[in-house]
Amino acid sequence: MRIAVDVLGGDYAPDEVLRGVATALRDDFTPEELLLVGPEEEIQSRLKAEGVAVPNILHTTEVIGSHEKPVEALRKKRNSSISLCVGAVKEGAAGGLISFGNTGAAVAASSIGLGMLPGIRRPGIAVVFEWASGKVVLLDAGANPEPKSSHLFHYGVMGTAYCRDMFGMESPRIGLLNIGGEAGKGHSTVREAHDLLESSSLNFVGNLEGQDLFKGSTEVLVTDGFVGNMLLKVVEGFMEYLLHGMADAVSDSDSSNSMLATFKQLVGATDFAEVGGATLLGVNGVVLIGHGRSKASAVAPALRNVRKDLRTGVNAHITEILNAQEGSAAEA
Amino acid sequence: MRIAVDVLGGDYAPDEVLRGVATALRDDFTPEELLLVGPEEEIQSRLKAEGVAVPNILHTTEVIGSHEKPVEALRKKRNSSISLCVGAVKEGAAGGLISFGNTGAAVAASSIGLGMLPGIRRPGIAVVFEWASGKVVLLDAGANPEPKSSHLFHYGVMGTAYCRDMFGMESPRIGLLNIGGEAGKGHSTVREAHDLLESSSLNFVGNLEGQDLFKGSTEVLVTDGFVGNMLLKVVEGFMEYLLHGMADAVSDSDSSNSMLATFKQLVGATDFAEVGGATLLGVNGVVLIGHGRSKASAVAPALRNVRKDLRTGVNAHITEILNAQEGSAAEA
User: Fold this and answer.
1) Domain segments of chain B: what residues?
2) Is B332 a residue whose pLDDT tops 60?
3) Cα–Cα dist B305/B278, whole Å
């Protein structure tokens, strides 16, 4: 299946996106696998300079900037790169897409253009943290800031399918992010979500707190998009603060350099500008949203994620797991 | 003004609390300044062993455990140490209190027992982060998980008074934690709070995102208690994860030790089990809530915080600033 690439989205587009595409082509992608969406001449000349070429280009020069209001911008810019990427998936010209542009626009364009999976009402962004204590999928990281409890329950379903398909985990643990471990904690939405998850056949381990993100307590952490986005940005912000502070203090000695290397190892796999982005789950298609600050190195991993989602059929598995749930929870 | 000390609250109570009290007495507190609430004989014998004594003890052996449901536990345990501390403040036997016990119980007992300041509907927990980039007061860190927009506005008022009195900042900047910098971002409560703050005379700098916690972008970060508590625990959890990971890797060389010291310096002032806890603002009294894992070293700083709140009259200043606001925002 072909993958559409939003060449114009992102802080360093199109340069870094195209450099990343060239790397992917030199590594393990064939030109036939890609559909590049952006300014045709520029794409061709830049790829030529990199010594590669892609036959399928969908020409456009329109792009939705990172600070534009998503829905409004999508209405005005009918030929924006993200709209054309979504259109290509909708029409079957591509199986999935990657974009490093305006997240809200990618979520809105995908939700409206592709529609939702059967039984799913709202999409969620799945971000993967990789700590020494193991992988944790945080879901939702910002697609849906005011979810209902049923949406949170669906995130548990999506997270289960995603962990199985992407990481081969048979029965990933699902935790619900809350401000206390006991049932009955938090506001009404999370309390209801707790009950829906508990009465399901998912491997639900109960409420978890913020510190559990780092402890290997769970493989999936379910939360609303407001909290999830905040948490993601706090972790990123803290990491940057510490990295700068330590880099400033580093001497040239081998051991302080190795200390800094240790630190980078502890946090490194969570540098989202380098690791390929987050998957938008719940929409009827495969959509990968990269960090706006992504450089070329993020492109090939993003493409590989989409390829894996397509090959494993994560969307079909979300539907299967949802259908396997008892009436009340599935229909909530 | 005397300060009531909940001797029984906290994971390491009463031992560490009493050791901390002894330190405070050796440092800069007089015995007359303290009212110890807990088991009288044990308190006396332990303090004697430390070579100090306190004349004012309010005897009780009842305590609300960290996992008890606050309101229920308060109803059952009329003589719990936190209830008696609040009672002492209410009756004027003490001007303020410190507790390292069940946070929910301290919030509920104080709100009900002391009542709220005029015009304030809900209390908020103010936690102070200290980064290389400056101090940030996060408010609310967990007292009020489902606030209305007017409560968030009041947190801006409280944060302003607190920063003025505690840190001598004349016009502290107030940021509203949101999932995007532009006005109109986030759910309806934060959008309304944005408008209330913007139309006030507070030094409101607009929406800020998670990463702004570390950047010196603001002195006060206003958020709901659900997000604030999550954020606090994520920062704590991340810090612990990194400290353990780096301590494991440290060699005995001077430079790797100095690297670890640099790291601790970057995060150190934010180890809440060591720095004296958080202030519950909005109630009609001075209440300091310490971290449950606090050791003795947290006690004297906590007592000093209460003393400073009492001396500066932060509560009177909250009322003044609130009264100075235009009608709509103040009465929202």
Assistant:
1) 1-114, 124-279+297-332
2) no
3) 9
Q: Binning pLDDT at 50, 70 and 90, where does residue B202 land?
A: very high
Res. A331: pLDDT tops 70: no
Q: Which CATH number fits domain B1-114: 3.40.50.300, 1.20.1050.10, 3.40.718.10, 3.30.9.100?
A: 3.40.718.10
Q: Is B150 a residue whose pLDDT tops 60?
A: yes
Q: Is the C-alpha dihedral spanning B22, B24, B289, A180 positive or negative?
A: negative
Note whether A256 contacts B259, CB cutoff 8 Å: yes
For A180, B9, B251, the CA distances from B103, given in Å and listed in that order, are: 11, 10, 39
Give all strands of the β-sheet with B57-59 in edge-to-edge order.
B57-59, B34-38, B3-6, B96-99, B286-289, B278-281, B124-131, B134-139, B220-222, B174-177, B204-208
> Is the pLDDT confidence value at B329 over 90?
no
Chain B residue with Cα closest to A67 = B182
> pTM of the prediction?
0.91
A167: pLDDT strictly greater than 90: yes
Helices (H), A199-253: 225-249
The single residue listed with the structure tokens 């016009």 is B171
Interface subset of B 160-199, CB within 8 angstroms of A: 177, 179, 182, 184, 186-188
Domain B124-279+297-332 has CATH 1.10.530.10: no
- What is the bridge-based pairing of β-strands A204-208 and A124-131? unpaired
pLDDT in tens, A249-285: 776 666 677 777 777 778 765 566 666 789 999 999 9
Of A182, A237, A263, the CB nearest to B214: A237
Asked whether A48 and A36 are in contact (CB, 8 A), the reply is no
Instruction: Provide the token pair at B132.
Output: 């290389």
Amino acid identity at B48:
K
CA proximity to A95, closest of A308, A321, A318? A308
What local confidence, expressed as pLDDT, does residue B258 receive?
Answer: 75
Which chain B residue's Cα is nearest to A133?
B241
Tokens 């310490």 map to which residue?
Answer: B290
Locate A59 and state its tokens.
């020409």
CATH of domain A128-274+313-332: 3.40.718.10
Half-sphere exposure of B275 (CA within 13 A, CB side): 12
Angle, helix A225-249 to helix B225-249, in steps of 10 degrees: 40
Using CA atoms, how far apart are residues A65 and A98, in angstroms rounded to an integer?
16
Which of B192, B218, B241 should one mutate to test binding to chain A, selecting the residue with the greatest count of A CBs within 10 A?
Answer: B241
Cα A307–Cα A313–Cα A316 angle in degrees, nearest 5? 150
Q: Out of A232, A250, A259, whose CB is closest to B246?
A: A259
